[in-house]
Amino acid sequence: MIAVVYSGSRNADWKLAEKGRIVCDVKTPGINPFFNDEKAISAILARNHQLISYAEDIKRIYFFGAGASSRERQQVVASSFSKFFSKAKISINHDLKASALATCGDQPGIVGILGSGSNVAYFDGKKIKENNFGMGYILADEGSSNWLGRNLLRDYFTGTMPKEFESIFVLRYNPDRKQILDKIYKQTSPVLFLSSYTDFLIEHFDQPYVKQLVQTGLNIYFNTYVLPITDKYPGVPLHFTGPVADGFQSTLSQIVGEHNLNIASVIKRPIYNILNYYTNKN
Question: How many CA atoms lie within 13 A of 209 on its CB side?
Fold first, then answer.
C-alpha cells in the first residue's frame, strides 16, 4: 500500500492506495514543519483512527507540503512519520514539486501555487529549479488565501471597506477586533485563520470590492513572481494549482492573457494527479 499526502498549512489530504485503487481517503490538519514541530506532527497522526488502522500496511509514503523546502524541515516530518509508519519508506518534498508532478508529469513546465500560500517555479521535468520566492506569509504570499484574508481584515478594521460589502461581512462574521488580533498574533498558526475567508470571498465574487481585492493580489503575484520566470523560460507551458487559482480562475486567466500568455492547466487539488503518477511508477 502507498500513501500520497499533499499538505497546505490549513489541511492535509491523504490518499491510501493499493494497486491503483484508493483504499482510504483521509483529511488531517495541515502538516507544515515551519509551524509544526515533531511532537505536534506526531500528535496529528495519533489522533486519526484511519491512519492508525493502516499504519502497518503502508509501505511507501510520498509527502508534499508547504514549509518542507529545506532538509532540516523535511527531516522534522520524516522523523515523525518514521516512528508512526514503522514499515514505510518515506519521501518528503516541497509542495511545489507536488504541483509540478501533478501538472507537468515528467515534462518541463512553469508551475504556480495559489493556495494558503503562493509560489512559482520552473520544473525541468525532474527537478524544481531553485529561486528566491516562497518567503512565507509575512514577507510574501501575495495573491494567496492568507494574503486575501489579511487584506480583507485590514480593510474592515481601518474603515476602508465599502459600506455595502461591510454589511455582508459583518452579517457573516460579526468580527471582534480583540479576538481576531489574538488569533493572528497569539495563536500558533495564523495562516490557518487568515486563509479561512477564501470560500466567503469566492461566494461573493460578484461584489466589486472582492473583484478588486482579488485582482490586486493576483496582479502583484503575477508581476512579481510569475512574469520573471516566463521571461526566462519563454514558450514553456504555464500551470497553476490551489483553491485560489481554481476559485478565481477567470481573473487569473485575464491577467495572464494581458501578457499574451496562456494557462495550460489549473488544478484545485493536485493529490489525485500525484497518486496517478506514483501508481504508474510503482
Answer: 20
Question: Is residue 24's pLDDT more than 70?
Answer: yes
Given a contact cutoff of 8 angstroms between Cβ atoms, the answer to whether 46 and 52 are in contact is yes
* Distance separating alpha carbons of residues 18 and 281, to the nearest angstrom: 13
The cell for 154 is 485590514
The rounded distance, in Å, linking the Cα atoms of 253 and 264 is 10
Look up residue 179 and give its amino acid.
Q
Parallel, antiparallel, or unpaired: how do β-strands 21-29 and 11-18 relate? Answer: antiparallel
Q: What is the pLDDT of residues 180-210, one digit of tens each?
A: 999 999 987 898 899 999 999 999 999 999 9
CATH 3.40.50.720 fits 2-98+271-281, yes or no: no
The pLDDT value recorded for residue 282 is: 66
* Nearest residue to 65 (alpha-carbon basis) of 75, 56, 55: 75
- How many other C-beta atoms lie within 10 A of the C-beta of residue 249? 15
Q: Are 24 and 54 in contact (CB under 8 A)?
A: yes
Q: Read off the DSSP letter of residue 223.
A: I
Collect all residues with Cβ–Cβ distance below 8 Å to 23 and sequence separation of at least 6.
Answer: 1, 16, 17, 54
The answer to whether 64 and 91 are in contact (CB under 8 A) is no
Distance CA 126, CA 111 (A): 13
Average pLDDT over residues 34-49: 94
The three-state secondary structure class of 60 is strand
Chain length of the chain: 282
> Closest Cα to residue 246, out of 266, 217, 218?
266
- Could you tell me the residue ranges of all domains in the chain? 2-98+271-281
Alpha-carbon span 271 to 190, nearest angstrom = 24
Record the cell numbers describing residue 98, joined without a space: 507536488
What would the pLDDT profile of 117-161 be if each residue is shown by its tens digit?
899 999 999 999 977 777 878 888 999 999 999 999 999 999 999
